[in-house]
Amino acid sequence: MEMMMEKTDDVFDASHTIFSQNHKISPRQIRRALTLELFGVSSLLLPAYLAGGSGILGAAALGIGAAGAGALVCIWDRLSEHCDFEDAGNRIARRGILAVSGIGLLGLAVYVLYVLTILLRDQLLTVRYEPAILITLTAAGIFGLRKGLESRIRVYEVLFWFLIVPLVIMLILACFSVHPRYWTVTSFSIRGFWKSCWISFLFFSLASLILFFKPHCSEPKAAAKSAKYSIFLALILNVAVYLILIGIFQDTLLSQLQFPAVFLMAVVKLPGGFFERQDAFMVGIWFFCLFALFHSLLFYGSKSLQNALQRREPSQSQESRLSSLNEQKNIQGEKEASGQAASSISGGICGAAVFLGTFWLLRHEGLAGQCLNLLICLIGPMLLILPLVYFGVFRMSRKCSGRKK
């Protein structure tokens, strides 16, 4: 009887570890979280830029940008199979690249938090409660980091269908207000079209960030496939939203709207007229999508900076010298506790930095356009090039070590 109770306790502990404390996320969770992150920011900001530069051809620019992002995910996935970011021979290069990547990701988090604050202020609350909104969102982001990656991803896994199904219903209702005659090419510029393709590519390339954290995936080989699936689903939703917006507002008016996807909800009328503020309901959808992206960027940025400053862990040969299993468990527990403390500290510092950056941007809203151009022209390409630079450094160091041998 005692043996059966011991076995039952062991099974309970193992299952508890597998489903609650294993620090892993499934490919399905990756697909759902990435889809929300990609769709939220792209559908909110891309339509105005695409309409001003490409008109109806912005739908084609979306497809080209998504195809390029999918190809980039494939390239990075293939290269990551032959490269280890934890390689001791590349510690200096790895730390430098992680530090620059962390700063760039926090810069993206600043702008996403700024957009989220503006969205809530102008579209939902219609009052200037910026400090209260900003403090609340930043505190929620930092608190989410303390709960870990699993808890955050599980929340968006549950919310996925609660956000996508109402969105699809609203888009179907909006189709009744579309004028197909607006789907014509009024003006065309090769420069504007390729700029639209480039901007679309940068937005969809956010999906490739998951490859930096493949160890968090329970099936690392399926991470790239999940990212490509998310790009495809976000593309379908974005094309649908863009065509509806063009068919209702035309490209001239669409290019002048701040958040056309949210403004679209003021045009859609639900049957019966029982829901007067459906625009507020749709703001809730974009709120969760943008907050998911903000939370991911804050996690990626703080984790990158933490890994850049973290000391090298002892090797397995050193750990094997421990005399007993209890000592190994104690050392492992101390590592986990110190790791959680370091993550909390780095998350708090990075969250405070993002808060200050967003607060400064809110005080100088005229610089928001220049900030976005900086992200598009500098920070975005830099984050895409850095992994390729590291792969090159990795190959060169391997060749040099081989010659020395």
Kindly report the average pLDDT value. Answer: 77
From the alpha carbons, calculate the radius of gyration and give it in angstroms: 23 Å
**Alpha-beta content class:** mainly alpha
Sheet having the most strands: none
- Classify the beta-strand content into a percent band: under 5%
Overall number of strands: 0
Q: What is the helical fraction, as a range of percent?
A: over 70%
CA distance, first residue to last residue: 60 Å
Count of alpha and pi helical runs: 13
The sequence of SSEs as H and E is HHHHHHHHHHHHH
The 3D shape can be described as globular
Ranges where pLDDT stays below 50 over 5 or more residues in a row are: 1-20, 314-323, 325-339
Please describe what this structure looks like.
- By secondary structure, this protein is mainly alpha-helical.
- 77% of the residues lie in helices and 0% in strands.
- It has helices at residues 2-20, 27-53, 58-80, 91-125, 130-147, 149-174, 190-204, 223-254, 260-263, 278-309, 316-319, 325-363, 368-404.
- Helix 4 crosses helix 12 (325-363), helix 6 packs antiparallel against helix 10 (278-309) and helix 10 crosses helix 12.
- It is globular, with a radius of gyration of 23 Å.
- It starts with a helix and ends with a helix.
- Residues 1-20, 314-323 and 325-339 have low confidence and may be disordered.
Layout: helices, strands, pairs:
Blueprint: H1 2-20, H2 27-53, H3 58-80, H4 91-125, H5 130-147, H6 149-174, H7 190-204, H8 223-254, H9 260-263, H10 278-309, H11 316-319, H12 325-363, H13 368-404
